[in-house]
Task: structure prediction
Amino acid sequence: MDDKQQIYRVIDANLNRLREGLRVCEEYFRFVKNEATQAKFLKNLRHKCKNLQDSFDANALLSNRNSAEDPFSSGLEANEGERETCDDLLKANIKRSQEAARVIEEFAKILQTETAPQIAKNIRFELYTFEKEIYCGNHI
Result:
């Protein structure tokens, strides 16, 4: 696998991670907190991930996926199973989403895609603002 293929693998994994993390947060606000405003914000942000994904070659993303050989695909890593409350789950998934957006932003620069780094950065900063609003604005 050459560098470009490995980069597509990284981006594919992080696109999945980003969408999944956002979905967990969305479900938290929708079903646990019954807060439509935050759930809709997260749903819209998750839909922005489609624009991000569309800025890459879809075939390259999928064809370079190698879940079977992912060293973290079996079992839980340290701290992954440590969720005592729904708030713990929310915090972990906000961070997971921020981190995935950053990874996409950085690796997309190597591929020299036109829009992906900026879209990923925008998503990341929207998440930073959201995190501050929910924890400092007493929305939880």
